[in-house]
């Protein structure tokens, strides 16, 4: 597995719930932001994927909330793809506070969708490798 990339994010007040904690849906937005940052680091843009007739799909996500986040907290959101032998692969992510405290761990099952056939491509690594200018970022 290649080294995960990390994206810095500061928790904004409007992202918190009535208890002052980061709203659970925002963890998913942070994770999505980091996933696209990983693809961009590999040289794959959303536009390039659409032009190639493919797009990423999230099939399942599990979030472990370990420590609360509040407005003003600075975090790093990591992202790494873990390849298997099937149409799907894992996306492993962590949300880590500036002091090193892990606030959340996210694990997803993802794939690459053929936008014409509306089916997952048989070899997601090959589909991404064909578009990547820096394939090593994705461990391809």
What fraction of residues sit in β-strands?
A: 35-45%
In DSSP terms, counting alpha (H) and pi (I) runs of 4 or more, how many helices? Answer: 3
* The CATH topology: Thiol Ester Dehydrase, Chain A
Total tally of structural domains: 1
Overall radius of gyration: 16 Å
Low-confidence stretches: none
Present the secondary structure layout.
Layout: E1 5-10, H1 24-41, H2 46-51, E2 54-65, E3 74-82, E4 88-97, E5 102-114, E6 119-120, H3 124-131
Antiparallel strand pairs: 1-3, 2-5, 3-4, 4-5, 5-6
Task: Give an overview of the whole structure.
- This protein is of the alpha+beta class and 140 residues long.
- The protein has 3 helices and 6 strands, in the order E-H-H-E-E-E-E-E-H.
- It has helices at residues 24-41, 46-51, 124-131; strands spanning 5-10, 54-65, 74-82, 88-97, 102-114, 119-120.
- Strand 5 and strand 6 (119-120) form a beta hairpin.
- 24% of the residues are buried.
Short descriptors:
alpha+beta; 140 residues; 3 helices; elongated; single chain
In short:
By secondary structure, the protein is of the alpha+beta class.
